[in-house]
Design brief:
The structure is a single chain. By secondary structure, this protein is an alpha+beta fold. Among the domains are: about 5-25 and about 35-175, no CATH class; about 325-435 and about 480-485, hypothetical protein PF0899 fold, CATH 3.30.2320. About 40% of the residues lie in helices and about 20% in strands. It contains 14 helices and 14 strands. The strands form 3 sheets. It has a 7-stranded mixed β-sheet with strand order 6-14-11-7-10-9-8, with helices on one face. Strands 1, 2, 5, 12 and 13 form a 5-stranded mixed β-sheet that branches. It has a two-stranded antiparallel sheet with strand order 3-4. Strand 9 (about 400-405) and strand 10 (about 410-415) form a beta hairpin. Helix 1 (about 5-25) packs antiparallel against helix 2, helix 4 (about 105-125) runs antiparallel to helix 5 and helix 4 packs across helix 6 (about 155-160). The longest helix has about 35 residues, at about 35-70. The relative contact order is 0.12.
């Protein structure tokens, strides 16, 4: 199959955008019929996929062009110090940081590390998690380098140092309890010196295994990340700015305008420490390849299991604030044991119009089935079309999203939401989840416990342990963007 070209993808994207514009024009004053709604959803998903493919194709062409470019002679290498890719000398071993040109200008050093990090990502890193798509993963991390790396290249340093074959070999021997060569010991010390996590006793997880660098979850149990406003940072606290709506008004001729500036606020999210413990046999530890292949899956799954609950119900005390915790504006239904059609319509209408275009619904599978019973006429809602089928049977997909919409909103399953139908239970959240911020502090650290002991006889079990820890936080930026459904 031929590799898509930039020109071909640009033409395809143009046609898809024209299709969307045509559908919108044809139904400007009416709701989409079900078949048009299905096509609208499909076309918009195709647009997003094509945009990603286009960016990857553009990046591939840039890399090919850069690989073809070489300096004419060594005299002009100095003029290329700000962009090193044309210098084949360092390209042979981008992990050798001893030949980084030192400078009083931190941005100059940072650019050298960024060039190396991009080459490492493109050429050497193979993300180990079975759910990772290599091209998309590399695109995400490259975008992250452009967006959040500091001027002196902290994130780039982290990627270069913790991706080297020497470091991966050294970390494998460290985990297995083997002796390290001087070269391997130096690789670990360099990693600790340049660590983003300021590790005192442990070492950074190799980049291709680190779920804080690349969230590779299939989102089956932690779907909030698909809809939330997810940011990666290399600092301890995220400080964001929120803004209220900007107002507008007509004015008489030659009269002064009114002040329509929005009310600005600040959202501060601290990154809290989370941890996981992985026991493994000494035999497996001695075979780093076997353990390495499992670590990415184990670490991502451990994060997902924890975050699925905390991003929903977290108290904010030494843990993230959950969506339900921050969505404090509650709509109370009329029934203590279920939901009625009127409840659902009023719940929808309670959400302010400014938040409706980007809204989604988060419910349990039990709640979804209650809504389906309304449409089926089991509880008196036949023909209500509250649950609009757009693709197939509304069952949970592997992303946690149902293949149908609730009142036109994307619906996704969250196993942490209440599925108990009694008075006071919070059974659903409707809102714009871009107002729910998830902040990931990049860099996961691992420490080894050399020997695990049986709790009854205090004898070694022939196992070691990996203690892994990372940091993140989450918070609702604007409670007005959500309405939580509470049973009466």
């Amino acid at each position: 199959m031929a590799t898509p070209t930039v020109t071909g993808l640009e033409n395809e994207l143009k046609l898809l955008l024209e299709d969307v514009e045509r559908m919108q024009s044809d139904h400007a004053d009416s709701e989409f019929p079900p078949e048009v709604a299905a096509l609208w959803d499909h076309t918009n998903r195709k647009i997003e996929e094509t945009k990603k493919q286009l960016e990857l194709a553009r990046r591939r062409e840039r890399m090919e062009e850069l690989q073809r470019s070489t300096p004419v002679n060594h005299e002009n290498e100095g003029t290329l110090a700000h962009f090193q890719v044309g210098n084949s000398q360092w390209r042979e071993d981008p992990y050798n940081v001893s030949n980084i040109e030192r400078s009083f200008d931190p941005e100059k050093e940072g650019q050298q590390f960024r060039d190396r990090a991009k080459l490492v990502l493109e050429r050497d890193i193979n993300f180990q998690h079975p759910g990772a798509k290599p091209d998309e993963a590399k695109h995400e991390v490259t975008s992250m380098l452009e967006a959040i790396d500091s001027k002196d290249g902290n994130l780039s340093r982290h990627i270069v140092v913790n991706s080297s074959p020497l470091y991966k070999r050294a970390i494998g021997k460290y985990i297995g309890g083997d002796f390290l060569s001087e070269e391997e010991g130096n690789a670990l010390r360099l990693s600790r010196a340049l660590s983003l996590t300021s590790a005192a006793g442990g070492y950074a997880v190799p980049v291709e295994l680190d779920p804080t660098v690349l969230p590779t979850s299939n989102l089956a149990i932690n779907p909030i990340r698909e809809f939330a406003n997810v940011r990666q940072v290399t600092v301890d606290t995220f400080n964001g700015v929120t803004a209220g709506a900007v107002t507008a008004a007509y004015q008489a001729e030659a009269t002064p305008t009114t002040d329509s500036s929005p009310t600005l606020g600040q959202i501060v999210i601290s990154t809290e420490r989370a941890s996981s413990f992985i026991p493994f046999s000494i035999e497996i530890g001695q075979d780093w390849g076997s353990l390495q292949s499992e670590m990415a899956r184990l670490l991502s799954d451990a994060k997902d299991v924890l975050e699925a609950t905390k991003f929903t119900l977290g108290s904010g005390s030494n843990e993230p604030f959950g969506v339900v915790t921050g969505a404090t504006t509650v709509f109370t239904g009329s029934s203590a044991t279920g939901v009625t059609l009127t409840d659902l319509m009023n719940w929808d209408e309670a959400l302010p119009p400014r938040f409706q275009p980007g809204a989604a619904v988060m419910i349990s599978k039990a709640m979804a089935n209650r809504i389906r019973r309304l449409d089926a006429g089991v509880t008196g809602g036949a023909g209500s079309a509250v649950w609009i089928q757009t693709l197939a049977q509304p069952v949970a997909t592997n992303t946690g999203r149902f293949s149908a919409q609730f009142l036109g909103y994307p619906a996704f399953q969250n196993t942490a939401m209440s599925s108990t139908f009694t008075t006071g239970q919070l059974v659903g959240v409707l809102g714009d989840f871009s107002y729910y911020y998830i902040i990931d502090r990049i860099g996961m650290t691992i420490e080894t416990i050399p020997h695990l002991f049986d709790v009854t006889n205090n004898q070694p079990t022939g196992q070691r342990g990996l203690y892994c820890y990372w940091r993140n936080g989450a918070k609702v930026a604007d409670a007005a963007a959500f309405r939580t459904l509470k049973l009466g």
